[in-house]
Amino acid sequence: MAKPRSGFATSSDTHSSCTLLLGCRHTTHKIMTRIFLVTGTSSGFGAELVKYVLEQGDYAVATSRDSSKLEKPAKATDDNYLAVDMDVTSPDSIKAAFDKGLKKFGSITHVINNAGFGLSGEFESLPDKLIRQQCEINFFGVLNVTREALEVMREKNKQKGGFIQQITSIGGQTGVPLFSIYCATKWAVEGFTEALAQELKPEWNITLQCIEPGGFATGWSSHNMIYPSKSDKCQAYDHLDGESAMKKRHGTQVGDPAKAGKAMYDFAVMSNPPFRAVLGSDAHGRIMKKIDDYQGLYTKFESQSKATDRDDK
């Protein structure tokens, strides 16, 4: 099979720009052929994104802990699609998946960090084992994949460069009750990515982005959600029940997963993509309220904040 012609524009076609609010640099690049590697593609956002990638005539490496269980998209062929196993907690597994993608397609131009799971419950009801499992997959898993992606895009792609999109959550910008650890992992990914974006050399031509979805009817709240056992329930929290709350919410979310997959693709291929973007009217409303709250809070206490400066400065 002939490998797709892939790569990025020359330096004359690229530029770096700074986002005033975020202080993050991103690079604009023009891609001739796109090869997406997507984590967590067994259902939800990942599955929808892979479908849309193939519908656009691009190439996809779909990863899952057990790729044999993945449903092959209608547009998938032996030439444009590769399903591979990947455990995001295992650097060896990640490297093997990237190597298979490189062997088949020659380059990996876009990496979408989508793998993760939900953990719902009062903080004091969550056993340490579940907390650490959440952090290993939702945070350290993203770090592991991002580390491999950076090396591939800088050292192994036919033409240097690439795009890394982190699928975080509106819970990575606003705290959500009963999701304290989940939110903590998403905030961690946001902070990590914002800092990392400022460490990369412009000539590497690597762009980073955070996508922050709100509520979507993906089935995430049912088959991809873990709750503490009844025996672990801290009785002081008799006013809260995470499992009942999520079951009532299941299927009522305003977001359409297929539209989310399209939006993720569109944000990933923009000529001048934003560093952050929310998905869903609910998420947009919450982030705008958060911005307003921040503006009011920091303005109100501006004098106290500035009063801590040294007198000789």
UniProtKB/TrEMBL annotation:
Keyword hit for Oxidoreductase: yes
CDD domains on file: 17beta-HSD-like_SDR_c
Coiled-coil regions, chain positions: none
Keywords carried by this UniProt record: NADP, Oxidoreductase
Annotated PROSITE patterns: ADH_SHORT, PROKAR_LIPOPROTEIN
Annotated transmembrane regions: none
Record family assignment: Belongs to the short-chain dehydrogenases/reductases (SDR) family.
Name of the protein described by the UniProt record: NAD(P)-binding protein
Gene symbol of the encoding locus: Mo03739
